[in-house]
């Protein structure tokens, strides 16, 4: 069961970043499937935790490139990353404390955020990284 289909529209042409984005898409799809199947709370909690940790690692990868190559949009991009991480942490905390009922509204938010971020914000650094030989 796929919420997000990995297509060329989501590829930036930077292999390491594309692989990480694909992994995030796969995790969102797994989350979607778990909600649809009404999986147990422990499995869902573990996936949310894993997704949060992987997202933080991915953002650190991007931000290291930004620092290394002096990406002009670094501050704004980092703020987008932090906003997303804060939302995922809030989601995780509310879920663990029983104050959140999982719904497809959450998966739709994740889908919209990842696709818009890749195709919008992330697309802004592609030319810079490719000009520096990152592929």
Could you walk me through the main structural features you see in this protein, from its secondary elements to its overall organization?
This protein has 135 residues and is mainly alpha-helical. The chain has a single domain (8-131), classed as Hemerythrin-like (Four Helix Bundle (Hemerythrin (Met), subunit A)), CATH 1.20.120. Helix content is 76%, strand content 0%. The chain is built from four helices and no strands. It has helices spanning 15-37, 41-68, 74-96, 104-131. Helix 1 runs antiparallel to helix 4 (104-131) and helix 2 (41-68) packs antiparallel against helix 3. The longest helix has 28 residues, at 41-68. The radius of gyration is 15 Å and the shape is globular. The two termini are 31 Å apart. 11% of the residues are buried.
Q: At the third CATH level, what is the topology name?
A: Four Helix Bundle (Hemerythrin (Met), subunit A)
**Tally of alpha and pi helices:** 4
**Separation of the first and last Cα atoms:** 31 Å
Approximately how much beta-strand content do the residues carry? under 5%
Compute the gyration radius: what is it? 15 Å
N to C succession of SSEs: HHHH
The CATH architecture can be named as Up-down Bundle
Total discrete domains: 1
* Major beta-sheet overview: none
Low-confidence stretches: none
GO molecular function: metal ion binding; oxygen carrier activity
Protein name: McHr protein
Keywords: Iron, Metal-binding, Oxygen transport, Transport
Domain Hemerythrin-like: 13-128
Fold topology:
Layout: H1 15-37, H2 41-68, H3 74-96, H4 104-131
Helix pairs in contact: 1-2, 1-4, 2-3
């Amino acid at each position: 069961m796929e919420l997000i289909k990995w297509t060329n529209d989501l590829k930036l042409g930077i292999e390491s970043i594309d692989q990480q984005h694909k992994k995030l898409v796969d995790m969102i799809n797994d989350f979607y499937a778990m909600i649809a199947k009404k999986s147990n709370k422990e499995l869902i909690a573990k996936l949310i935790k894993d997704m949060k940790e992987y997202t933080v690692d991915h953002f650190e990868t991007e931000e290291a490139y930004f620092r290394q190559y002096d990406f002009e949009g670094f501050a704004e991009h980092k703020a987008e990353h932090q906003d997303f991480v804060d939302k995922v942490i809030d989601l995780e905390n509310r879920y663990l404390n029983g104050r959140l009922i999982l719904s497809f509204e959450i998966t739709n938010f994740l889908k919209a955020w990842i696709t818009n971020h890749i195709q919008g914000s992330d697309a802004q650094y592609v030319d810079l990284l490719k000009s520096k030989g990152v592929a």
